Amino acid sequence: MSGIIAPSILSADYTNLERDVKLVEAAGAEYLHIDVMDGTFVPAISYGPNWVKQLRPETNMVLDVHLMVQNPERFVEEFADAGADIIGVHVEATPHIHRALQMIKNKGVKAEVVINPGTPVSAIEAVLDIVDQVLVMTVNPGFGGQKFLPSTLQKIAQLKTFREERGFDFDIEIDGGVNNETIQSAYEAGANVFVAGSYVYDKVDPAAKINILKDLIK
Ligand SMILES: O=C(CO)[C@@H](O)[C@H](O)COP(=O)(O)O
Ligand SMILES: [Co+2]
């Protein structure tokens, strides 16, 4: 099974956002990753539901919304109404992770649970039967351009084993430090959706970068 590339627009040029979105779509990216940050769960502040709503008609890519916000259940319905296709909520951000995921599913949107590098897979075991996707953070959340943490690979493998043994049906996404040198180890461990921000957008030719990544996960 070949993998899916999800460019993160956190590293795009916001003054040329439409160009940067269309460019990765034309290059074959299937998902567009949108990092929502609240200045509390993570230090930075980024964008909100209105921003997703304006982006929605501009692309056919799957909008993969990563909520790095405290108590995400306050916002999931707004992001669903804005046109998100997948909404991810951090287990560390709420005492009500099951409710948050259920709220996403009730809106007809794919529900994703997210774990930080310091959080074990056991913290999400009780919700693995209801999620469509698990996001394993391969850096600490909050910023683009950080280094991939190889210690996260064993959690990817553990999730793959859980899925096989218990007959669950979720995708495994990774986010942070994904580039031509790191993608293959995560693919081999069992990940099948790959967020890439700075590697795709920071230097020349995002389309070529997507092709390089795609070739490595065939
Ligand atoms: O969620 C986050 C950061 O918190 C990411 O989605 C970043 O946007 C990934 O950026 P790179 O590590 O690929 O530069
Ligand atoms: Co992200």
Query: Over all CA atoms, what is the radius of gyration?
Result: 16 Å
How many domain regions? 1
Which cofactor or ligand species appear?
5-O-phosphono-D-xylulose, cobalt (II) ion
- Strand order within the widest sheet? 1-8-7-6-5-4-3-2
CATH architecture descriptor text: Alpha-Beta Barrel
> Helix and strand string, N-terminal first?
EHEHEHEHEEHEHEHH
Reported for the largest beta sheet, the result is: 8 strands, parallel
Distance between the termini: 7 Å
Note poorly predicted spans.
Answer: none
- What's the CATH topology label? TIM Barrel
Helix content: 25-40%
Mean pLDDT: 97
Number of strands: 8
CATH level-four homologous superfamily name:
Aldolase class I
Counting helices, strands and paired strands, the structural category is alpha/beta
Q: What general outline do the C-alpha atoms trace?
A: globular
What is the percentage of strand-forming residues?
Answer: 15-25%
Secondary structure tally, helices: 8
The top level CATH class name: Alpha Beta
